[in-house]
UniProtKB/TrEMBL annotation:
Annotated organism of origin: Rattus norvegicus (Rat)
Topology in the lipid bilayer: Multi-pass membrane protein
Protein's name in the database: Olfactory receptor family 14 subfamily J member 3B
Chief location category: membrane
The organism's taxonomic lineage, starting at the top: Eukaryota, Metazoa, Chordata, Craniata, Vertebrata
Subcellular location: Cell membrane
Keyword Transmembrane helix: yes
GO CC, alphabetical: plasma membrane
Keyword Transcription: no
């Protein structure tokens, strides 16, 4: 009766990954732990790259914005689901749902764009070190980040506008932990969703172009690294780049599978895994990838934790 009363309203009911309340609580607690770990890691990176003079190079400037995106992305999706699972009230208004769609698309697109910029920065640093200061001067870095945020805002606006064209019929129940477009398409009772599918295809082409750009950058990076005489230098670059490529590939491939594949009428475990892989895992792992292998960041964190005065 509760579900029926809620779904007859203008909002949407987020059921999570299971109708079983005990499983919902378990999923919510696991996501909460992941959220706290990811948020702490990203917050630490944002703090130290803002305050410490050692971390003011373009690489750390881009890393700060990546951490800001990751922290925001986690905050858009996870807290809402944890709260609804613990209070047994998964209702979300239509306006809140559309705002969640807009925020998630903006942040996901910005993340893809900033990772593309970071791969180019890494390429210039390793393959063109003598020209690095000219190519990656502060003004160009500022323009690059501005372009990242602007492109994400435009993509999110177009995406949300096309989502607003969807007309729903039947019970407005989503088996997901946030308002995700593939799940909203299941509720469509008209051909209006063709507009958003066209938008998905268009953005997918641009995302694929970013992916090709990243691959090209890393092909040049690896070819340069393999010619380095020092085994220690080669190991250092590979230990940083390979985990980055893995998480990026996980983010892009799982998102592509969720958004491009036809959606089934009933929830599946695979859809649950895809949503976690592109919405939760990358923003949680990025702080670990960019900090555990970086001696400068580790030394600054130790100074922050064990020094009474945080200075350069």
């Amino acid at each position: 009766m509760i579900v029926k009363n809620i779904t007859t309203m203008s909002g949407i009911l987020l059921m999570g990954f299971s109708d079983n309340h005990e499983l919902q609580i378990l999923h919510a607690l696991l996501l909460l732990v992941t959220y706290l770990l990811g948020s702490a890691g990203n917050f630490i990176i944002i703090t130290i790259t803002t305050l410490d003079p050692q971390l003011q190079s373009p690489m750390y400037y881009f890393l700060k914005h990546l951490s800001l995106l990751d922290l925001s992305s986690l905050s858009v999706t996870v807290p809402q689901y944890v709260d609804s699972s613990l209070t047994r009230n998964g209702y979300i208004s239509y306006g809140q749902c559309m705002m969640q769609v807009f925020s998630f698309i903006v942040l996901a697109w910005n993340e893809l764009a900033i990772l593309t910029v970071m791969s180019y920065d890494c390429y210039v640093a390793i393959c063109l070190p003598l020209h690095y200061e000219v190519i990656m001067d502060p003004r160009k870095c500022t323009w690059a980040v501005t372009a990242v945020w602007l492109s994400g805002s435009i993509s999110g606006t177009l995406y949300t506008a096309s989502t607003l064209s969807i007309r729903f019929c039947g019970d407005k129940i989503i088996h997901q932990f946030f308002c995700d477009v593939p799940q909203l398409l299941k509720l469509s009772c008209s051909k209006d969703h063709l507009v958003i599918i066209g938008m998905i295809d268009f953005l997918s082409v641009i995302a694929f172009a970013c992916f090709i750009g990243i691959i090209i950058s890393y092909v040049h990076i690896f070819s340069t690294v393999l010619r380095m005489p020092s085994a220690e230098s080669r190991s250092k670059v590979f230990s940083t780049c390979l985990p980055h490529l893995f998480v990026f590939s996980l983010f892009l491939s799982s998102g592509a599978c969720a958004y491009l594949n036809p959606t089934s009428d009933s929830p599946t475990a695979l859809e649950f895994l895809f949503s976690v892989f592109y919405a939760v895992i990358p923003p949680t792992l990025n702080p670990l990838i960019y900090s555990l292998r970086n001696e400068t960041i580790k030394s600054v964190v130790r100074k922050l934790l064990f020094s009474t005065k945080f200075t350069g």
